[in-house]
Amino acid sequence: MGDLASDREAAISLIIDEYHKLQTHNPKHELLRYITDVTQDSFRYSADQPTRQAFVDKYAPTDKIPFAVMLTAYLVDLTRAVDQIEGTNRLAKPQEPVRVTPIKTLDDLNDEDIPF
Fold it and tell me: Which of 15, 86, 100, 107 lies in the 20 to 30 Å Cα band around 41?
C-alpha cells in the first residue's frame, strides 16, 4: 500500500493521461477548462477565478471533501467523457462470466444426434 504522496502522484498521472486523450478528441471540451499548463507530470488549476470556483463547487462542494476525493471525481468525469467519445465504458461493473456447456465430441453423440 502506498503513501499519500505516491497516491496523489498516481492520481495526477491518471488525470493527465485522460486529459490528453480528451484533448485529442475534443480540444474544446468543458472539462479541459479546469486545469491548465498540463505537462507530463503536473498541471495547474485554472487561474480564472470563476472557473476555479466552478471546479471546487463541482468536485469539492463542502470543506470536508478530501483533496484525493476531488481529484478522483474529476478523473472519473474525464474518463467518462473519453469513453463516451470512444464508445467504451471502462468504468462499467464487470459482468458475470457466461456459463457455457461444453460441446459434445463425436464420441459422445449417438446416431440420432448426427445431422448428416
Answer: 86
Classify residue 81: in a domain, yes or no: yes
The candidate with the shortest Cα–Cα distance to 67, out of 18, 7, 21, is 7
Contacts of 20 (CB under 8 A, 6+ apart): 38
Q: Mean of the per-residue pLDDT values for the chain?
A: 87
pLDDT for 1 beyond 60: no
Read off the pTM: 0.76
Number of structural domains in the chain:
1
H-type alpha helices, 44-92: 49-59, 67-86
Are 74 and 19 contacting, i.e. CB atoms less than 8 angstroms apart? no
